[in-house]
Q: What sequence folds into this?
């Protein structure tokens, strides 16, 4: 089962993502800040990082660079309420970019697609959608 690290400074967002992704069949760990995420990634065993951008202290863009310095092969999905960051070339190193929404179907689909590209199993039965 793939292990996802959810990084967000908002307690409620972390809880929501943890619950939704665990229901979808993923193993989930959380971090409340960029430094916590970097420390956890350094320990290994993470298959994908879901990273918020707007966080106090170290923002997600800086954390992205440091995470990729530790492990260039680790896929990172940027997940933010601000679509304007998509134009920032510093975010282009991420595997994907998803704008936050109350509907998590796009996020779940993106996670499944990114993991499938890496040859990792997708436990979420709804993604990828089957073609008839």
A:
């Amino acid at each position: 089962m793939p292990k996802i690290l959810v990084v967000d400074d908002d307690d409620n967002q972390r809880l929501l993502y943890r619950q939704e992704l665990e229901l979808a069949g993923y193993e989930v760990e959380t971090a409340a800040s960029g430094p916590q995420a970097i420390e956890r990634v350094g320990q290994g065993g993470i298959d994908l990082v879901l990273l918020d951008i707007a966080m106090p202290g170290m923002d997600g863009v800086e954390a992205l660079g440091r995470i990729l310095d530790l492990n260039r092969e680790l896929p990172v999905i940027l997940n933010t309420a601000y679509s304007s960051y998509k134009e920032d070339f510093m975010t282009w190193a991420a595997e994907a970019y998803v704008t936050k929404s109350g509907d998590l179907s796009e996020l779940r689909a993106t996670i499944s697609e990114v993991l499938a590209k890496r040859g990792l199993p997708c436990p979420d039965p709804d993604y990828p959608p089957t073609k008839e």
User: Anything to note?
Assistant: The longest strand covers residues 3-7. The helical segments are 11-23, 34-42, 60-70, 105-117. The chain has one domain: 3-117.
